[in-house]
Amino acid sequence: MAHRAPATNRALKTGALVVAVDTGDPARPIEPELAELEALAAASGANIAGRIVQKRAKVDAATLVGSGKALEIAQEAEKLRAGLVLVLNELRPRQRKNLEKIIPLPIVDRTMLILDVFARHARSREGKLQVELAQLRYRQSNLIGAGADLSRLGGGIGTRGPGETKLEVDRRSIQARISVLNKQLEEVRRQRTTRRGNDGREPLAALVGYTNAGKTSLLNRLARSKAFVADQPFATLDPTVRRVWFGEGRYVRIVDTVGFITDLPKDLLNAFRATLEELDEANVLVHVVDASNPDWPRQMTAVEETLGTLHLESKRCVVAFNKCDAVEEIPHRGESLAVSARTGAGISELKAAIESAVAQ
Ligand SMILES: Nc1nc2c(ncn2[C@@H]2O[C@H](COP(=O)(O)OP(=O)(O)OP(=O)(O)O)[C@@H](O)[C@H]2O)c(=O)[nH]1
Ligand SMILES: [Mg+2]
To answer: In order of start, what are the domains of the chain with their CATH numbers?
Structure first.
């Protein structure tokens, strides 16, 4: 059995070789996506040993990259002493199988990496159960082996499970484990609904947005609280609610929740759907956008798409461009606001916008 240290200090010793196919789609420049993948890898404790980007009109149906390139990847990985290969593009089970035949290393895709960061950051029981469920479902539908090879890495990416059990479960028992997790989740959720029953009638505003946009920082600024903030994706997994005083006996509950990301894995979204359903109850959404990230338009679109998937697109929404202290030119969209959780700029305007939205 692989050694299991506490999630916080389990770090990957070996480096990761990043592999991507760039199809040259002008709507999806590769650079921001690579940067994001590497930030996810860092949040998972991996070092980036190198990058191989192959330009081709479309991905290879059998091996994603050309088969010659796959050999080159195997050689480069050996030269760099990389312990795993991190693939940016979506990998079909067949492509994974074929690549595994050429590259003798664990092949980790973006979804596995995101799931891994979630596993690392889950704190509540519900959060942990949800992540483990998403991981098992993903393994099941992508025919990812039970990980005898992976576990040799000793708690590397793709092998980390948040719960009491290891992910290196025999494939046949995955289905059984999924049933157990579903039952446990049902129980946790029933308790949560009962607890919520005495919440009172104060209006609810929900902070939503791309991961790392500064949602928790804004909540802290609004509520003068100290919830965990970090310059890494998915620092927050469990929804945090704070009562914020809006003057003269008026309070608004503000909830901060898990951040979104481009192509948020379907299994993860499904697993977190119950948590995200709390957003249904919100009187207003505050869409927090990181104005300091040049990639903000793509991030904003990704958030809007996810809100659509959650059937929240018609909910009243205030757009707040955050980190305005860090930009020269403040972007805007419709009646958007400019704020800074860091300096407090624009916070009273944001409160006024929230208040007028919940009053409607
Ligand atoms: N310059 C600047 N940095 C900010 C501001 N607000 C947040 N940050 C930084 O942005 C990073 C992410 O902040 P968080 O509040 O953790 O972001 P989040 O949206 O809650 O992120 P996740 O929970 O990981 O999805 C941290 O390093 C913050 O210090 C701001 O107004 N200005
Ligand atoms: Mg957060």
So the answer is: 7-151 (3.40.50.11060), 204-359 (3.40.50.300)
